[in-house]
Amino acid sequence: MPVIIDTEKCGKIENCPGEGLCIKLCEEDALIEEAGDVVIVSENCNDCELCIMNCPNQAISKVD
Predict the structure, then answer these.
(1) Contact 44, 29 (CB under 8 A)
(2) Contact present, 59 and 6 (Cβ < 8 Å)
(3) Model confidence over 37-64: pLDDT tens digits?
């Protein structure tokens, strides 16, 4: 099940206290950077939830 990003909470990479920590942690390349934004590549997501557990802004969650 892929994740979703709340863009209001995320604040893009430039405003992230973790400087794009979710991208750095994702070993499956399911989260990538495009023009300063975090973009989900859902077909690569393996449901590990590392991004959810480590997002400093609590901007990432599971799709219901």
Answers:
(1) yes
(2) yes
(3) 999 999 999 999 999 999 999 999 997 7
